[in-house]
Amino acid sequence: DCDHDCYHTRELKQMPQVILAGSEGAAGMAAAVDALRRGARALDVVESSIRPVELDPNVRSVGVGGWPNLLGQVELDACIMDGKGLRSGAVGALQGYLHPISVARQVMERLPHVFLAGQGAARFAAECGAESGPLLTEQSRREWQAWLDEHVPEAQRSRWPEAPLAEWARLTADPIKVHGTTITLVKDGDGDIGAGVSTSGWAFKYPGRLGDSPVIGAGCYADNRYGAAACMGQGELTIRAGTARAIILYLKMGLTLRQACDEALNDLRALARIYEGSVTVHAIDAQGDYYVVAVGDRETAAYWLWTEGMPAAERRLSVVEPW
Ligand code: ASP
User: Fold this and answer.
1) What per-residue confidence (pLDDT) applies to 175?
2) Distance 202 CA to ligand 1 centre (A)
3) Res. 2 pLDDT band, cuts 50 70 90
């Protein structure tokens, strides 16, 4: 229909298909490649590639086994975006559900809204029949307890969870080490582009803290006309700079994919920062090109890539830039 024509041109159909996932995305890659080869739509590939990562307790920053907040509760953030018509859905601080990416998808499909948070998000998840289950693993609980024991004096700890928390949020676990978001960007054979992200956010964050992952334009963005982008790392920075959206706008203004990402990093460099932190940006363009660059990060500077012609997805190392 003509509404969507400008997002979906003939020309783009000829361009190669691509799947670009973040460093945490391993668990979903093989099935995603298979699905895309069999003609699945970008958005379905995005969702189905993120679900196994959400279930994997060894991915410590996503879904089951994700990092808890200061109160020991796992609060999950996720977002999905359809580059055709820019439809989107997001959930923030969702507790008790195994697949926030699918709840985000349902927000997009079933509601006149794009973003639900907290109790409302959980209520909607229940209404959709989303799978519920425990998110806090014994290992995460032990690490949370150990962090509390180490940092919070007994007098305050004995008043937990009623004690004031702001002081401890400032002390929150080193965000350089304790982070990670799973990201998938897909361009399918019809030229449609989809993007999705899912995370528990920082370890030991203040309850109710939303990172960049569910914030459309900050942690995730997709537009068939130009490309898609998503971020991992210190969400407090990319929210302020509108990083994912900025990359797409820079593409629109005629920059190459690499120039667009570098310009977005320059925006981040201009921000006042509390922590050294780090950010990794992942991006694909409408021509099927891809680029991943990390600023200030050496530990998670990897990504997963599949493009047409590759027998299987490959793990690659991203460019790392200084702050
Ligand atoms: N970007 C996410 C956040 O700020 C987590 C991360 O990737 O480290 O919550």
Assistant:
1) 61
2) 6
3) very low
